Structure formats: structure tokens, C-alpha cells
Here is the input.
Amino acid sequence: MPNRLWHQCLEVLRDEFPAQQFNTWLRPLQSDHRESEGQLMLFAPNRFVMDWVNQKYLGRIEEVLKDLNGGQAPRVHMSVGSAPREHTPVNRSVVQPELKSSQRTHSDDNPQGVTEEEHNVAATAPTSMASRSRQTNGQRRDVQVEGDIKHQSFLNETFTFDTFVEGKSNQLARAASMQVAENPGGAYNPLFLYGGVGLGKTHLMHAIGNEIVRRNPRAKVAYLRSERFVADMVKALQLNAINEFKRYYRSVDALLIDDIQFFA
Here is the structure.
């Protein structure tokens, strides 16, 4: 079975992580194991889940796959969508005598089952963010359940204060942006840039982020458009993961949201 390796990996991860986290982030993933290419494709239901799994669980997934596959882990790639189904019947009403209901196994590819798991996520209190000790292959190991979050900035490195064309229409905005970059979280917090099209608002936002990172390479800066922010929040609500959504965006040093007028 092409997805056997992934289902074995899920069984290991099920024992390591709390049920709510497993059902929210790992269980909905669908797989396509391309053995000839040495590649395992994982499909997430939306971009928010894909980003979260990439940042929080992908490292452990690769470790488990390597252990299960004799030290040779397939390359793991993630995408948004559904795994291709090679044996999907064209007509569900067609009876297949050779396949009985008792012959169906837990490893059958069943997107409906995944949907039920997502809707049956236990509404329990948020789990502890600390490391938990789990039993794996007879040995104790520390599993970081909710450790440091890795942020992807999406900054355009060519948009800096040096490349910004300054004029009378944007002098004040540039000066305020420089103050924010030099003292993030202190000066002009929050800073709202308003103006017409083509005056450099987006350029200044990227320049702020790039300057913060230049001064502090360890700074966590996130740039995104308002549509992405709203979409992430809606998906987090649907997946009962609003606490993780809040923690993700509150943990940044600078949150830069473009076209914020669409919040209205």
C-alpha cells in the first residue's frame, strides 16, 4: 500500500502528542508516497494548517519516517489540497462484490473520516506549552509540544529605506517608519500609514521589517495582507485552533498588515 509508511508514522505520532493537537494538525493530513522518487507529499486542508505543521511538527515527522524506513527517510513536501486517489470509483452506487465492508482497514484513504476527526476535536482546555516526556521504542524522550514558533516574514529585501524615493508627500511617513524600525514596540505603536496609490506605503512597511531584522537578525517579523490574516482566523475558528492562531501572531516582534482597510 503506497501510504503504509505515512500511516505507521501517524500511529507513532498519535502516542506522542495530546489527542487534541494530533486531531487538529496531524490527522487531517493526506499523503501521497511516491516511492520511485523517494518523496512523500503531505496535503493540508488549508495554508494555515500547512504553515503550522511545517513550523511545529515537520522535524519530528521526518525523524519518525527515518526510523520506520531503516534510516532512509523520504523527502517530505507539503502542499494545500487533497491527495490524488488512484482507485476512486467513478460511481459510488456501483456494487463491488470483491470488496466487503469487513475487509476495509484503518489504513484505507478516507477523506470523510478525516473530516469527522476535525469536527470531533475535543473541546478541552488548552494543553500545556511545556515539553512532555513520551515513551517511544522503550526509551524516554522529550517532545516539544508547543515550543518556539518559527515565523516566515515574507519581506521583500529590495524594499529598504535606502531605496525609498522620498518626497514632500511622504517625508513624515518615512520619518515615523524609521522611528518604528529603530524602536519596535515603543515608538508609534501602532503605526497607521494612510495615503493614495503609489506613494510608497507598502515599500515603507517592508523597509520597517527589513531594518528591524538588520538591527536584530533574531527578530520575528511577519508581513501579510489583510485577506490572509482574515482567512487564517476563519480557518482557526473552524478547526477549534483560535488559541494557536492568537499565540502565533502575538509572538512576533513586528506585525505588518497591508491593505488593512479591508478589515472594515
About this structure: The longest helix spans residues 201-215. The chain has a mean pLDDT of 75. Residues 4-84+109-123+132-143 form a domain with the GMP Synthetase; Chain A, domain 3 fold (CATH 3.30.300.180).
